[in-house]
Design goal:
243 residues, Four Helix Bundle (Hemerythrin (Met), subunit A), single chain, mainly alpha, elongated
Length: 243
C-alpha cells in the first residue's frame, strides 16, 4: 500500500466515520430539540439547564459514534507503534518542542469554549462574543504551531515516508489536527451566525430563548474537551516513548 493509499483511507475514515456523524448531529440537534419543546408547558430556563442529549437520540448517537471512532483510531495507531518499536535499531526522533506549546494553547481554548454555554445561559452576549473570539484565535494558533512543529521535523530530515517513528508522529498528529479543524468549522458557523443575530436587537433577544442553541454549544464543548484530552494523551505517549 502506497502513502497516497494510506492518505485516501485515513481521509475517508476520518470524514465518513468520525467527523460526519459529529457535524450532522450538531446541525440537526436544534431541529430535533425544538420539535419536543412546548412553550405552553415548559419554561425557557428549564430547557436551558437540560442535558445536551435530552430528547435528542440522533445527536447523542452522532457524538458517541464520532468520539468512539476517533478513540479507536488513535488507539490502533498507538498499539501499532508499540508493536513495531522493539524492531527499531536507530536513534528515535527528538520530539518537537512546539507541540508542547500547542498543548498549552489547546488547553486554554478548552477553557474559553467552556465559557460560551455559560454566557449563553446567562444571556451575556458581550462575554459570549469575547469567548468565541478567544477560542477561534487560540485554535488558529494551535494549527499554526502544529504546522511549525511539522516544519521542525522536516528541518531534521524527518519525513512521513521515512523511518516509522517519524511517520507515526506525522499521521497521529495530522489526524488530531483534522479533528481540531473539524471542530473549528461549526465554531466559526456559530460565531458568524451569532454575530449576524446580534446586529438585530429583536433577534438578539429571541436568540437566547432558543433551547436548541445551548444544546449545540454544549455538544461542541464536549467535542472540544475530547480533542484536548486526546492531544495531551498523545503528547505523554510520545514523550514517554522518546525519553
Amino acid at each position: 500500500m502506497s502513502i497516497s493509499d494510506i492518505y485516501y483511507f485515513l481521509w475517508h475514515f476520518e470524514f465518513d466515520i468520525i467527523l460526519k456523524p459529529f457535524l450532522l448531529s450538531i446541525v440537526s440537534i436544534e431541529k430535533l430539540t425544538l420539535a419536543k419543546y412546548n412553550p405552553y408547558t415548559e419554561k425557557v430556563e428549564d430547557v436551558k439547564q437540560a442535558s445536551p442529549f435530552a430528547g435528542n437520540n440522533f445527536g447523542k448517537m452522532g457524538l458517541i459514534v464520532g468520539l468512539g471512532g476517533s478513540t479507536s483510531l488513535f488507539l490502533a495507531f498507538m498499539v501499532a507503534y508499540l508493536y513495531s518499536k522493539p524492531n527499531w535499531t536507530w536513534t528515535l526522533l527528538s520530539f518537537p518542542k512546539l507541540f508542547l506549546v500547542s498543548a498549552v494553547v489547546l488547553v486554554l481554548s478548552s477553557f474559553s469554549i467552556r465559557q460560551i454555554p455559560k454566557a449563553f445561559a446567562a444571556d451575556d452576549a458581550p462575554r459570549m462574543k469575547k469567548m468565541f473570539i478567544y477560542t477561534i484565535v487560540l485554535t488558529s494558533i494551535f494549527v499554526v504551531t502544529q504546522i511549525m512543529g511539522w516544519g521542525e521535523l522536516i528541518s531534521e530530515n524527518i519525513v512521513i515516508g521515512g523511518k516509522p517513528d517519524g511517520s507515526y508522529l506525522y499521521i497521529i498528529s495530522g489526524i488530531h489536527a483534522l479533528h481540531v479543524v473539524g471542530g473549528l468549522i461549526p465554531l466559526l458557523i456559530f460565531y458568524f451566525s451569532f454575530k449576524k443575530i446580534q446586529a438585530n436587537p429583536v433577534n438578539s433577544l429571541l436568540y437566547f430563548s432558543k433551547p436548541g442553541e445551548l444544546a449545540k454549544l454544549k455538544m461542541l464543548e464536549i467535542y472540544w474537551h475530547f480533542v484536548d484530552i486526546v492531544w495531551l494523551i498523545i503528547l505523554l505517549f510520545f514523550l514517554f516513548n522518546h525519553l
